[in-house]
Amino acid sequence: MLYFACRRKVPIYLIDFSCYCPPSSYRLPMAMFEENNLFDNMDPEAVDFQCKIIAKSGFSEETSIPPSLAQIPKIKALAFGLEEAETIMFSAITDLFQKNNINPKAIDILITNSCVFCPTPSLSAMIVNKFRMRSNIMSFHLSGMGCSAGIIAVSLAKDLLRVHGNSLALIVSTETLSLNWYTGKVPSMLLTNCLFRMGGAAILMSSRVQDKHKAKYKLQHVVRTINAQDDQSHGCVYQEVDPENKEGVSISKNIVNVAGDTLKKNIASLGPLVLPLREQFLYVFSIVCRKLWTTRRTSIYTPNFNLAFEHFCIHSGGRAVIQTIEKNLRLRKQDVEPSNMTLYRFGNTSSSSIWYELCYIEAKGRMKCGDRVWQIACGSGFKCNSAVWKCVCDVKPDTSSAWRETIHSYPVDIVRIN
């Protein structure tokens, strides 16, 4: 027991990552979205509702969908879903391997995650086949875990890398749209058409000693919170069929409140690990004061998270989600800039969005040695997960990243429509 208690934890490194950048031909301008849905004989009121949501979403005209959803009429077929998944995953992985001169056979652990699209063979098996990886590779696929699955994959990779030391792990986070486009009339289920866009990321993690000097980041903490024991939280993002027997994912009006409650629980667990003692004391003291002097309505102190982190990667699930976290944590505008710009340029790419945000920070040349990064993502269940990284070198902007052609034009002013 003393041996295990005193044994030093194996350090886990993030060597590099790559985000998929769709070609310009995959763009979905507002006019095209409206025209295609009307040609598909979708209910005019449903089309009008979606257009109003997108107008308020904080999206640009540059967000992308797969070609199968741009054709008229739309055809939902397994072949299109597989084609979309392969395009995103294989492109991101190939880019990552080429940049870091990695032989696919060197990968010891492979983890893929996609919430709704779960074919047979699995996405991980597709990657093993494409890149001719070893037969003894440890492969896993996570499904139904929502937009926070990327951090769950990091958590799984961390545990496996510590058990199987001196190993390389590849994580591939994506979500496919081809089979999940909702064609009905229920507003809560139409929201997914408005919020989700095409994207994915490949991440290379390591517990090998020789990778210490070429890694970008060192993993500090992973904190996971799930509120599925509460019925309202469990049902706020739910896959179901509508009265016309059309399948889709329903997003509840309560999602912002549910996300806020789950976020508070996650922060309560993360705070003692990262905040200075003074901030922890002020937080606890405010809680005690509120309980002792309830009549004075003493507010609970919000810790200054800028003392713990230099950068924030908040899942770009929607403008309202980003604004809520910004307000509750009292963050500065520059703290949420990566999230807002990712939402604007790429939309909600589900579990991969936090990697587009980290890529944005790097592309801006803001990541310096010693900087700490907080990745936080919320997803169905309801879950809120956090990953904390420490930069171990000055990161130079990557001229081949997903932001390569447009980074000079950001940040931009986003017109907010109420």
Overall, the morphology is globular
Q: Would you identify the regions where 5 or more consecutive residues have pLDDT less than 50?
A: 1-6
How many helix segments? Answer: 14
Q: Which range does the strand content fall in? A: 15-25%
Summarize the topology.
Elements: H1 2-6, E1 13-19, H2 30-39, H3 44-56, H4 67-70, H5 78-100, E2 109-113, H6 123-131, E3 138-142, H7 149-163, E4 168-175, H8 187-195, E5 199-206, E6 217-226, H9 231-234, E7 237-241, E8 247-251, H10 255-274, H11 277-292, E9 311-314, H12 319-328, H13 337-346, H14 353-363, E10 372-379, E11 383-391
Parallel strand pairs: 2-3, 2-4, 9-10
Antiparallel strand pairs: 1-5, 1-6, 4-5, 6-11, 7-8, 10-11
Helix pairs in contact: 2-3, 3-8, 5-6, 10-12, 13-14
Protein traits:
two-stranded antiparallel ribbon, alpha/beta, nine-stranded mixed beta sheet
Short description:
Helices cover 38% and strands 18% of the residues. With 418 residues, the protein is α/β, with parallel strands linked by helices. Mean pLDDT is 91; it is low at 1-6.
